[in-house]
DNA sequence: AAAAAAT
């Protein structure tokens, strides 16, 4: 049990205001970081996504800011525009009616509006490096009175692509300031840089509490030799039937190409990457969050921090570049204590890289062959059965009984039920569920090639069994954990039916507001 | 080598 916000040193007023927002109990990272920040220390904060990092640094800043001095006193930098927007929105919710003013400063948007905002005077700026530098050079943004400097996704901000910009910005801020770095990951190479920017920092590391393990099932689908990944993806999507998914690819071009392929197959999917206009980017995210689009094919622009509620699947169509990126990508799912599935397509030559990732997250992935047509059929039948069981307990059943009574004068009850099932099966079949025309039956039934010359166990379902190494603390959140609930039993091939399938009707769980932890508003806060 | 970030 963490101390209350009040015990952490926040004012009565702020605590009251947090309560009206529904935040009554600090998360671990908040409990650890807030007192240090209030006392003026520099802080390096690491905790998994979805743990309230934004609140951890915003609350102390809000507490100590001088409202009567209308100058930029805090600067927060983030690696993508959308992240800057999210953090800005989160900070805004914590402000209440204190009279504090904030601005989001990022590219792809009218610079004049931002200049106007700055001219009117703001206390907190949240932004991306490019536009911040632009406004510094135009003289519209002044950092002379900055007392807090925060890097969100700090390891990314201190990496090659950003470090020069960050240094340029820092050179204009007073050296007498408080600096905080937050991220879920911190590779050793970046860790070494920290003391260049921070003054005697406190490092605050929060492991995931045992009681609330991160529920991400991690799965590798092995792409058979000579299969394209696009070909392998189709049966995987049919089998998993993701309610909502982020599909990660390495390049913008692949994002565009894969998106058209999936769209022509009839899927509800769109692309998201840096080639799009800012307007298109934000519009897409809106449609994704409202569930108007089920799946999004994205570059690593979406890997970090992006907050989409209830994302059921993350699919790595291309392996990520680094273990850190892997951690951030899969962190888009399994949020707010919900279950999530992270799928990675692994080509035979990538198995070594796969093992490195597995070791890093200290969790073995479930390794599966590409689902066969028969397995996909069986899965749909299974879902149909579940729906029938559910319907049998429903209230509306009674209204259909007279029809059954009438039919049963002529037919056997089993036959009537079977006919009704057949109709349900045919009518709920998704338009895109099709057999692969170019694959032979034999290929479909055993898509994983059996090793010919190489000796050893050729079982298509191999589980990672490497030793688990301890010792890494910074760059990964969690120790090992048991297998997710994805036993192979659920995938056994039983009946083979021709025809379509039933599409699952999943209940949309209401998102409860978990105190101090992830809820829509605050998680933006966090990662 | 690619992605992100200013136009």
From TrEMBL:
A motif (Q motif) lies at residues 3-31. Gene3D superfamilies: P-loop containing nucleotide triphosphate hydrolases. The keyword Chaperone does not apply. Residues 231-376 form the Helicase C-terminal domain. It comes from the Bacteria. SUPFAM superfamilies: P-loop containing nucleoside triphosphate hydrolases. The keyword Cell membrane does not apply. InterPro entries: DEAD/DEAH_box_helicase_dom, DEAD/DEAH_RhlB, DEAD_box_RNA_helicases, DeaD_dimer, Helicase_ATP-bd, Helicase_C-like, P-loop_NTPase, RNA-helicase_DEAD-box_CS. Residues 439-527 are annotated as: Disordered. Residues 3-31 form the DEAD-box RNA helicase Q domain. It catalyses: ATP + H2O = ADP + phosphate + H(+). Its EC number is 3.6.4.13. CDD domains: DEADc (cd00268), SF2_C_DEAD (cd18787). Keywords: ATP-binding, Cytoplasm, Helicase, Hydrolase, Nucleotide-binding, Stress response. One of its GO terms (biological process) is response to cold. Residues 460-472, 478-491 have a biased composition (Basic and acidic residues). Residues 34-204 form the Helicase ATP-binding domain. Coiled coil: none annotated. GO terms for molecular function: ATP binding; hydrolase activity; RNA helicase activity; RNA strand annealing activity. Belongs to the DEAD box helicase family. This is RNA helicase. It comes from Dulcicalothrix desertica PCC 7102.
